[in-house]
Prior knowledge:
Number of strands of chain A: 16
CATH class of the largest domain in chain A: Alpha Beta
Number of domains of chain A: 2
Largest interface: A-B, 36 and 36 residues
Helix content of chain A: 40-55%
Distance between the termini of chain A: 63 Å
Oligomer: homodimer
Amino acid sequence: MLKFEVLKQCKKSRLGVLHTAHGDIRTPAFMPVGTAATVKAMTAQMVKDTGADILLCNTYHLMLRPGAERVARLGGLHKFMGWDKPILTDSGGFQVMSLGALCKLSEEGAVFSSHLDGSKHNLTPERAMEIQYLLDSNISMVLDECTKYPCEKRAAENSMLRSMRWAERCKNAFIDRAGYGTFGIVQGSMYPDLRLKSAQMLQEIGFDGYAVGGLAVGEGQQVMFETLDIVVPALSENHPRYLMGVGKPADLVGAVQRGIDMFDCVIPTRSGRFARAYTANGEINLRNARHAEDHRPLQADLDCPASQTSRAYLHHLVKADEMLGSILLTQHNLTYYQSLMQQMRAAIAAGNLDDFVAEFHERQARGDIAPLVKT
Amino acid sequence: MLKFEVLKQCKKSRLGVLHTAHGDIRTPAFMPVGTAATVKAMTAQMVKDTGADILLCNTYHLMLRPGAERVARLGGLHKFMGWDKPILTDSGGFQVMSLGALCKLSEEGAVFSSHLDGSKHNLTPERAMEIQYLLDSNISMVLDECTKYPCEKRAAENSMLRSMRWAERCKNAFIDRAGYGTFGIVQGSMYPDLRLKSAQMLQEIGFDGYAVGGLAVGEGQQVMFETLDIVVPALSENHPRYLMGVGKPADLVGAVQRGIDMFDCVIPTRSGRFARAYTANGEINLRNARHAEDHRPLQADLDCPASQTSRAYLHHLVKADEMLGSILLTQHNLTYYQSLMQQMRAAIAAGNLDDFVAEFHERQARGDIAPLVKT
């Protein structure tokens, strides 16, 4: 049982708070991804300092290593990784089904071989919920099938219907307790009628929140937004809405305008390990030689040690392949993402999200500060 | 000009403070190595939090990338890397001469090809001092030749004498200013008469401190200590004494007992990236399966987030090849090294270093806590 409060509404956008056994999540919220019980290149304290209220961990990785039963014996994921705030786990389905030939699907669930040692594993709806229970995840996601894009309608329908049967099995397997909950996932590819059917079926089962899955799979921002325009109005106003695996800053902004409350994405962390910074002035590639003698901070108006670091030093660290380059750029990207969410929350509270969004796009379009003229 | 004060003497060991333009260095001091203007896997703040008063950077790496002139244009190394405390730089000689066939030595200096792009460079005594000046290093080391071990006496003598001629050229090239200084380096392989001759010649030139070079090159701890027993008494009591490239905890303890004031070594940082922890209870390999379900902290009595992390989590991070494993083990190792120096300083101040050393060896010999019995 998770309690969700909508504090303020601004057109379709909502300012809310989701209460869990490990504290409150201010929404709209961005969840950094901590795949293997660590947000790559960050200490738990650094993640906390970015302003994150919750992070996401991956069932697939953790069930294989160190193993869900082991995490349970060690007191659960929060204690294991030194993160005392809320944790959401995915069901493992998306990654298992990305294994291709190493994974076989049936009505029962998935049978797959570990990418680590080839060992065979079963992932049924019931086992997915059990693993997330053992991990002590605050928000357990149902096992579902994520269709590829594009996907023929008949296949999309069959897949969605199976996902709905799995969702019901997950709900039945979920052990409810105060401050813990489970979210259903809307599927149906890009077909409005399938999406609406899926949303309806999930709400008949009844979940603590509703995710939109099967997006950010190559369909492009416009199709994604069109799908949200159809799906979100069909979702309960009293529950959080979670757009899975999204996205770049402009994706987050557009989805918040369409009524989404939660996001997760590897972009800020993965990009940080590849010399790429997301800033209020757009994307910056620190590998570019224009930064080599630029003493100016990465983003002057962001209060974070990494954002205040000179571009010249970041450029040097990236060129020298130093771990500190990944650390600082990940820290900056996560801080920027959290500041973007905070600014949107403040704008919704003030009732002027549209103004904020216009300013956001204007600054992104203006781009980075001009290069220093060589003296 | 650097001011050095000996505050307390305990047999041969000294408690001191070295004043620089960027603050005081409490001695005996351990300097973490920040090769390419970063202590690998650490932010500057994390290094500061370990208790380090000074760090060492490598001239060879920095002259090639980003280049000494570039660092100077960016305001010097402290500003470049966000470290406002003292910095010592080596002369580049040791690493240049480790390039083997890529390096040619003559009386003038070294000509070598960069390991990065094959470009040709000169490293003379004068250029070594100029680079360190451009980097804004608080303590510049003279260019010297470090003999291999073992080394025939005639070769050791010729090499030492050349190093002494280079030392004089370095002293002449050094631009003296308040809070900055230059250290000579005693050479002479394991030959007592050559070592004494070198110590005498350096002191006739006159430096702000005296280093013992050419040790920790495979001669073993006993020979190293024997050499210190000969060299240290021949060095000025009013100047800091620096043992280069040393070492493991027991090496530091034995060298402090023999009157050494400063150390640098890559062991705590490099080992941290290879799953190895140095603790008051000896060395621990976190890759070992015995730690997989051990919920106990790495070192319970050390006040550092990494030392307080469970062995099970560190084991997981190491096995999963996660950057956070390197980050935490480096942080722990540096904190342990600094705590060891702090304990030695306190023991010298209290006049009971021998008691501390006995306890140190007793605890190291006792080894790590017993493995948890599987339940």
